[in-house]
């Protein structure tokens, strides 16, 4: 982007997002260009608030949920490297304060909302005035899935064909779905041992099963588009659940094997299958962590809460 010397404080929010068709595998690791297109739904009020304050020092200060991180911490380095894209060779440093109202690094995509909010805040602090698609491209370079968190509702991330990545960004699918619910089943909020970045790399490099993933993702993407267009909840749920399990199958087939599930994750999946057998249309999706995200409709919320007490529910399109 065009860099302006003057900088000001800024504060922005971006939502987390849950992919219904997952991003798993890169064709370019520097630019975060995906091997497959993905489709997500943004989580309304759940996400990251990021504040930027210019500082006089010679490095950025990164704060996460009220605590200052060591300059060598992984998140701190990712944030500074990302701000380098904006500062280039200028002496322009920030105190970056990020607050997530979702558990950090528990497979609830806090890096997506974090880099999206940081991109929006940098756009303000540096008075860049960039259009949403360009902000989405920049956010993608911080964390791939962040390009989807620039928008609300259903969002598609096209893989793009260009080598420079200028056609690989989020696009909002202007479709609403009142009563569509996402429930967060927290199995374990602890930071995971293998982050998505190295997990997907390992899968691409070592799992023969990964060969089938782009085909699965392409087929699922068109089914999801159809389901959203027709508000066909069963088609949406089935497709999202099969997509998530297919992604996890490629991870399990990697070497060393990559399994994010815990015994409680499997128990929760079996509970969902049992409820479905009893006639309740509820489905799940899972990311690079042990937690489940349930997909269901508002009319089933009370019944579902009996089986998943304390379930945090988000209605991305309202009741
Ligand atoms: C997704 N995930 O589509 C998939 C499903 C995790 C599982 O996008 O290396 O943190 O920063 O581009 O975006 C998480 O991957 O990875 C992710 P990088 P990112 O939501």
From TrEMBL:
UniProt domain Mvd1 C-terminal: residue ranges: 188-307
Keywords from the named record: ATP-binding, Lyase, Nucleotide-binding
Protein origin, superkingdom: Bacteria
One GO MF term: diphosphomevalonate decarboxylase activity
Record EC number: 4.1.1.33
Diphosphomevalonate decarboxylase-like N-terminal domain residues: 14-168
Pfam families: MDD_C, MVD-like_N
Protein name from the UniProt record: Diphosphomevalonate decarboxylase
């Amino acid at each position: 982007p065009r860099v302006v010397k003057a900088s000001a404080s800024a504060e922005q929010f971006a939502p987390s997002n849950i992919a219904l068709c997952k991003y798993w595998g890169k064709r370019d690791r520097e630019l975060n260009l995906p091997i497959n297109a993905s489709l997500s739904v943004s989580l309304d009020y759940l996400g990251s608030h990021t504040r930027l304050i210019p500082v006089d020092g010679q490095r950025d200060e990164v704060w996460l949920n009220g605590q200052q991180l060591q300059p060598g911490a992984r998140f701190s380095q990712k944030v500074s490297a990302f701000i380098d894209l904006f500062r280039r060779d200028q002496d322009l440093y920030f105190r970056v304060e990020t607050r997530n109202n979702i558990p950090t690094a528990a497979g609830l995509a806090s890096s997506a909302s974090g880099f999206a909010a940081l991109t929006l805040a940098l756009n303000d602090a540096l008075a860049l005035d960039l259009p949403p698609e360009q902000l989405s491209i920049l956010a993608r370079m911080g964390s791939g899935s962040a390009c989807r968190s620039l928008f609300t509702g259903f969002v598609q991330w096209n893989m793009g064909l260009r080598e420079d990545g200028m056609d690989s960004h989020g696009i909002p699918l202007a479709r609403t779905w009142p009563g569509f619910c996402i429930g967060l089943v927290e199995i374990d909020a602890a930071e995971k041992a293998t982050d998505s970045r190295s997990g997907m790399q390992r899968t691409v490099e070592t799992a023969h099963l990964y060969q089938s993933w782009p085909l699965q993702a392409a087929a699922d993407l068109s089914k999801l588009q159809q389901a959203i267009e027709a508000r066909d909840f069963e088609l949406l749920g089935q497709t999202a659940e099969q997509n998530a399990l297919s992604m996890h199958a490629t991870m399990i087939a990697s070497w060393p094997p990559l399994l994010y599930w815990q015994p409680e994750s499997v128990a929760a999946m079996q509970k969902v299958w049992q409820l479905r057998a009893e006639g309740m249309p509820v489905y799940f999706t899972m990311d690079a962590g042990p937690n489940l995200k349930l997909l269901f409709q508002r009319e089933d919320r009370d019944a579902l809460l009996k089986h998943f007490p304390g379930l945090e529910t988000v209605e991305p399109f309202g009741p």
